[in-house]
């Protein structure tokens, strides 16, 4: 998980930076250093693309970060529940067990939708109409670029990006 988190942070920096601005990122850097660099870069992009004031940044950024943490946790919970459903199907779980997992999946999906709506409303209250429009475009493009970079890395470096990978593979005799 640590390798995936570090790689995602590296990808964030590479995915969203224009070629002239993108700088090589040391993949061996500590996760805290990568998070700080990525947070700084995200702030810069958010401020410049939306034209945010210092006051708006102080209010918007913590909300965006909290919402993203919650989204990440819900995605993790949805993925775990989906895996459990697949495993249950393969291993012959009872209808009751499958229904419980299906109910849990529905609950997670509902919470994801509620978070999207409430999070957007929280952020919207802090922005002008023009900034709201810009934020929607910015957020979607940012997520899409990150997803594309992760998929590309998985294709190019499957040993580092497969689920459950713990780090660089050792040379085995």
Describe the structure.
The chain is mainly alpha-helical and 173 residues long. It has helices at 2-16, 31-50, 54-90, 95-124, 129-156, 158-161. The radius of gyration is 19 Å and the shape is globular. It has a domain at 1-52 and 127-166. It is 77% helix and 0% strand.
Question: How would the blueprint of this fold be written?
Answer:
Elements (H helix, E strand, L loop, with lengths): L1 H15 L14 H20 L3 H37 L4 H30 L4 H28 L1 H4 L12
Helix pairs in contact: 1-2, 1-5, 3-4
The sequence of SSEs as H and E is HHHHHH
Gap between N and C termini, in Å? 26 Å
The count of strands amounts to 0
Number of helices, where a helix is a run of at least 4 consecutive DSSP H or I residues:
6
Quaternary arrangement of the chains shown?
A: single chain
Spatial shape: globular
Strand content: under 5%
Helix content estimate = over 70%
Residue stretches low in confidence (pLDDT < 50, at least 5 long) are: 1-7, 9-25, 166-173
Rg, nearest Å: 19 Å
Instruction: Decide which structural class fits the backbone.
Output: mainly alpha
């Amino acid at each position: 998980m640590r390798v995936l988190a570090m790689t995602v942070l590296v990808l964030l920096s590479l995915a969203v930076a224009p070629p002239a601005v993108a700088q090589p990122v040391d993949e061996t850097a500590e996760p805290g250093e990568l998070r700080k660099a990525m947070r700084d870069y995200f702030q810069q992009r958010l401020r410049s693309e939306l034209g945010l004031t210092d006051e708006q940044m102080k209010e918007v950024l913590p909300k965006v970060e909290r919402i993203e943490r919650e989204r990440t946790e819900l995605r993790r919970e949805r993925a775990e529940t989906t895996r459990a459903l697949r495993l249950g199907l393969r291993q012959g779980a009872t209808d009751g067990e499958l229904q419980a997992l299906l109910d849990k999946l529905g609950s997670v999906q509902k919470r994801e939708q509620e978070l999207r709506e409430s999070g957007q409303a929280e952020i919207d209250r802090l922005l002008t109409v023009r900034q709201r429009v810009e934020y929607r475009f910015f957020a979607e493009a940012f997520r899409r670029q990150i997803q594309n970079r992760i998929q590309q890395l998985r294709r190019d470096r499957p040993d580092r990006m497969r689920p459950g990978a713990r780090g660089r593979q050792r040379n085995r005799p």
